[in-house]
Amino acid sequence: MSDHHHPHDGNAEPIPLEGETWAPPAEDDNAATASANSGLRYVFLGKDGLRAGWSLLIFLALVVGCAMLSFFTLRTLHIKPPVGEKVNGVIEGLPSGTLFSHGIMLVILLAISLLMSVIERRRFGVYGLDALTGHRIKQFVVGLFWGLVMLSLLVFTLKATGFLVFDGFALSGSAAFLYGLKWAGAFLLVGLAEEYMLRGYLQFTLSRGIAGILGDSAHRKAIGFWIAALFFAFIFGLGHKNNPGESPLGLIMAGMVSLVFCLSLWRTGSLWWAVGWHAAWDWAESYLYGVADSGTMSKGHLINSHAVGAPLMSGGTTGPEGSIFVIPILILTALIIVFTLRPESWPSNQE
Questions:
Q1: Is the N or C terminus of the chain more exposed, i.e. has fewer CB atoms within 10 Å?
Q2: What is the pTM of this model?
Q3: Neighbouring-strand partners of residue 87
Q4: Cβ atoms 25, 15 nearer than 8 A
Q5: What is the spatial distance between Cα 278 and Cα 293, in angstroms, rounded to a whole number?
């Protein structure tokens, strides 16, 4: 397919290069484009429409502004988010608290991304959350399956090696069912919000901006994508720093899982597989096995358990994600992505 766009074509589609899977569009600021435009129009518009730098600046300003407005509104209306409950000296989060915080986050992110899709004249789905067709539903469900399997494999590896002990069931009957359902809804929102936060609009836009800087390089779009992925993996890992029981290794593992999620995005052009994996992993970790999730515990888990031994091996207060055993689990997950997810083109910008 030709890599030619008409200047300032706001409906420009991402164009996969020969031998690649997908790629966001690149800002091709070549000499022809530069000579054809001048003044403010050239400052704000590139060959692919609004320049990525301005897009990122507008998006971040709107997200921060909406977040501040939501906090101010909640404080003015005296609406307090649900707080966790203290159990054995440890604050355990509530499903309602997770739904509240991540629900607000997701609404803001989706609303601003939708606005940006209008400004940029792109279809909303190109930012990673395209329509839930039968194909995407299948990817989401398969992601759920592998997230549950991978977390279970990690937990039972820790148990088999003596670094995790099950202390019996904490819930039974209707309470177990209701908490399982509540946490399933909560972690679905976590998967959607946390995947889209850095690997949705921001990943797409920074990728196209970096690709444009690289000029006519044959692999500029792939390079742009993975540089952006590395940057946001660092941010994602750093974002877990304030979790009460987090460890340095846990932060590194969070960054690694971010890159694994980006691999599924690179293969499919969609976040739905990663959303499913993320939601199922967190649900199994926090509810099913009752272990810490990136340093935080959850109220209403099915099984009581505790870590034993050196934190490097057991994960300690971080949970299984802080164990060295998570590295082969993430490598295995990456291999599953490579061998089970067929490479696809990024969703078309046209309806």
A1: C
A2: 0.86
A3: 90
A4: yes
A5: 12
Structural domain including 207 reads 31-340
Decide the pairing of beta strands 45-46 and 303-307: unpaired
pLDDT over 60 at 212, yes or no: yes
- Please report, as a single letter, which amino acid is at residue 4: H
Q: How far is Cα 36 from Cα 34, in angstroms, rounded to an integer? A: 6
Contact status, residue 273 vs residue 199, Cβ threshold 8 Å: no
Q: Write out pLDDT tens, residues 99-114.
A: 999 999 999 999 999 9
- Compute the average pLDDT of residues 196-221: 88
Whether 234 maps to a domain, the answer reads yes
Residue 9 tokens, joined: 């074509």
How far, in Å, CA of 265 to CA of 249, rounded?
25
Q: How confident is the model at residue 34 (pLDDT cuts 50, 70, 90)?
A: very low
DSSP 162-218: TSEEEEEES--HHHHHHHHHHHHHHHHHHHHHHHHHHHSHHHHHHHHHHHHHTTT-T
Is position 127 within any domain? yes
Q: Is the pLDDT of residue 9 over 80?
A: no
User: How many separate domains does the chain show?
Assistant: 1
| Tokens encoding 133 | 């067709």
